[in-house]
Amino acid sequence: MAPLVRRSWAPCGCTPILYQRTQSHQKVSVIAALCVAPNRHRLHLYFRLHPGKNIKAPLVKDFLYNLLKQLHTPLILIWDRFLAHRANNVQSFIRKTPYLYAFFLPPYAPELNPVENVWGYMKTNSMANLTPLDLNSLTQTTRTHGRSLQRKQNLLRSFLKHCPLSLRLA
């Protein structure tokens, strides 16, 4: 829960002080999808927070199941090679689910993943210098900033444009 310290402001001669809990290794894991509507006019950011947990295959499978339930449309996944994405039960879920297709990005290519840009933006802008004192406040702040980001179409579009991937299907 250590803050990502960015530039800050303080009166002249007063050093800004960020208070934090030391030796706290608590975290909030996040799983997300940046979805492009079939008509390419709108983007949607779907995310789920998991305080104090690591993302593993059952959480990925549950996220995909709920995403399919909400979208009611065929879904093409383009995701990184995270271990939970490649797990056998996730891959079998994808094979058994009609209208769900998955493609992997090349290894070690976070610049191709627009969701990485989402988290990078949140960490370095809206949540910079944040010093939560407990897991609940970190979770609530992350949820608040994530929901705020969901409403910013131009910003979501910029995350996609920043990736050198094309939206056109061959």
Structure description:
There is one protein chain. With 170 residues, the chain is α+β, with helices and mostly antiparallel strands. It has one domain: Nucleotidyltransferase, domain 5. The protein has five helices and four strands. The protein has helices spanning 57-71, 88-96, 114-126, 135-150, 153-162, and strands at 28-36, 43-51, 75-79, 100-104. The strands form two sheets. It has a two-stranded antiparallel sheet. Helix 1 (57-71) runs parallel beside helix 2 (88-96). The longest helix is centred in the last third of the chain and has 16 residues, at 135-150. The radius of gyration is 18 Å and the shape is globular. The relative contact order is 0.19.
* Strand/helix succession: EEHEHEHHH
Largest sheet: number of strands, sense, barrel closure: 2 strands, antiparallel
* Mean pLDDT reading: 86
CATH class: Alpha Beta
- How many helices does DSSP assign? 5
Question: How far apart are the termini?
Answer: 43 Å
TL;DR of this structure?
Helices cover 37% and strands 16% of the residues. By secondary structure, it is of the alpha+beta class.
Describe how the helices and strands are arranged.
Elements: E1 28-36, E2 43-51, H1 57-71, E3 75-79, H2 88-96, E4 100-104, H3 114-126, H4 135-150, H5 153-162
Parallel strand pairs: 3-4
Antiparallel strand pairs: 1-2
